[in-house]
Design goal:
Elements (H helix, E strand, L loop, with lengths): L1 H12 L2 H7 L4 E6 L11 E9 L6 E9 L5 E8 L3 E3 L6 E5 L5 E11 L3 E11 L3 E11 L11 E3 L5 E3 L15
Antiparallel strand pairs: 1-2, 2-3, 3-7, 4-6, 4-8, 5-7, 8-9, 10-11
């Protein structure tokens, strides 16, 4: 009986989008580079967890950086997608002294977005005289559909790919009256 009342309340309040928030559960998006192919550059790995939120809702973002180095300074540049609303302010440039190998260096923030789509928080991590690594943490908002501009790629009759761009024409009258 109680279950039926909850379902009725959810349907009256707006369906599944409200159901997710009603129970306080959000879908988690997780990712890591630990144990994967290590590209040349700074020996830094990332692990992240983000919440797939609805439009206008807050998504908690938890990023953890690790390094096998035990000395030096990790310089982290944080670039948050301009279309994301930054709820908690995070310094755009972090200087993190490395303490011991495989130490965890967390970066926590909250973001939201006004439109459905896929957004990114980009990190550029560098260690002096060692190298750098670039990471992108995806932020899913709404129904996960990414708004993409229509492709201007077309094929000719011969099957050759061409790119079509909008053109502007300016007419200049060069005739001179004598």
């Amino acid at each position: 009986m109680k279950y039926t009342q909850i379902l009725l309340l959810i349907s009256l309040l707006g369906g599944t989008a409200m159901a997710v928030n009603f129970y306080g559960k959000k879908e988690l998006v997780k990712g890591t580079t630990v144990g994967r192919y290590a590209k040349p550059g700074a020996p830094v790995d990332i692990t992240y967890t983000t919440e797939h939120a609805n439009t206008g809702d807050i998504s908690d973002v938890h990023i953890v950086l690790t390094s096998s180095l035990s000395s030096g300074i990790m310089h982290v540049q944080v670039n948050i997608d301009k279309r994301l609303n930054e709820i908690t302010a995070v310094s755009k440039e972090l200087l993190i002294p490395l303490k011991s190998s495989n130490e965890k260096y967390p970066i926590d923030l909250k973001v939201s977005a006004d439109n459905d789509g896929l957004y990114y928080i980009k990190l550029l991590v560098s260690i002096k005289d060692i190298g750098f690594r670039a990471f992108a943490v995806p932020i899913y908002v709404g129904n996960r559909k990414v708004k993409v501009n229509k492709n201007s790629m077309q094929k000719t009759k011969n099957g050759e790919n061409i790119t079509v761009f909008p053109a502007e024409e300016t007419i200049i009258n060069n005739s001179s009256s004598n």
